[in-house]
Amino acid sequence: MPSQIYLGQVMHQRFFPMQYQFRYGVMSLRVDIDEIEAEASALKWLSLNRFNLFSLHFKDYGARKTNQAWRVWADKLLAEYGLPEAAHKIELVCFPRFMNVTFNPLAMWYAYNQQGQMIGIIGEVSNTFGQWHHYVLTNHGQPLADSVKAQAKKVFHVSPFIGMDCQYQFRFSKPSEQYKIGIYQTENNQQVLISTQVGQAQSLSDKNLIKAAFKHPFNTLKVLAMIHWWALKIWLKGGKFHKTPKQLEKIDYSHTEMNQC
User: Fold this and answer.
1) d(Cα 251, Cα 260) in Å, to the nearest integer?
2) Fewer CB within 10 Å: N-end or C-end of the chain?
């Protein structure tokens, strides 16, 4: 199958106002959005838009609440940011639902031309308040390198213990047998947070899905638990709490551009 399972690790390292580092194992899927419906129909333990041990739902990613097909949504958004024609192939790397439980702090979309070169990237960031944002990178149809450096101004409220006057630097690698992504966040030119995810590919099969279920059960609950646990520790140590900016309180969804650097 074109789609794969990634077994790997997420790392968070915070530098200010207090220092900590933690790591945890994760399971994610890399899916060809044009093939996943047929692939899921051939699997016992993964379904599309219905309950299963593992499942993927249109309403969890992309346009979400409109329940719009991923391909329609992705083509439209990439075109809005300068991609002159629809991508030949688009992949989504995300945490699937496990027993109908889901949360994706970051899901990634990768667009390719007929030669298999990356021509677009979408970073889908979600917070625990039910809001989400897309950071979009294209090179107006020209191929991107297999390893890409990009940057963007923070415009989406994520952690209540980090302010909005921040910049992101991103490190993306073309998904392959290994998966790598890095996010480096600065606030007032001071390093605040580093987040990375790495993974090793396995074939998408019922056997490997069962193995992943035993290795990383309730994957996304663990992610949520870690987020809230460290937020509590920061709060108890006197970390400054930042409310959602008033101009963003009623905005469920937004998108802005990333730029290569």
Assistant:
1) 27
2) C
